[in-house]
Structure formats: structure tokens, C-alpha cells
Design a protein that fits this description.
The chain has a domain at 38-76. It is extended, with a radius of gyration of 19 Å. It has 76 residues and is mostly helical. It has helices at residues 4-12, 16-29, 39-55, 63-74.
Amino acid sequence: MPTIEEIQQTVLALPVEQRAKLAESLLSSLPLADEEWSEAQELAEVERRDREIESGAVQPLGETEFWRRVQARRKR
């Protein structure tokens, strides 16, 4: 059986359209999250995070820094 790395290498060599179709198929095969949030729960979470930023408890990241961190984690 091929390793995930071998499969990934093969898939990344496919044309963009085929990779997108495969990605969609893989994502649709995953089980749904156990907990689906209601609109009220989503709004409460947004408000909680906003309060954290306003109070200085957390510092928001700029887009550039966010993507830099994403790329760094992908390389691990």
C-alpha cells in the first residue's frame, strides 16, 4: 500500500481541476461535525472573541502573519 506522502506526491502532479474534484470528494466523505452551531451560538462566540480582543487578553494577527504561521505549521 502506498504511503500518504506517495499518494500526496501523485495527487499534486494532477491538473488543478482533477485535484479540486478529488479534494471535494474527500471532504464530502468526512463525517459532519458532531456539534452544529446555531446562529445564536455562532454570534455568542464572535462576541466572546471580540471581548477578548477589546480587553487586550488576546492580540489579533494580521493576514500576513496568519499565513506565515500557517505555512510554518505545514512544514512541520
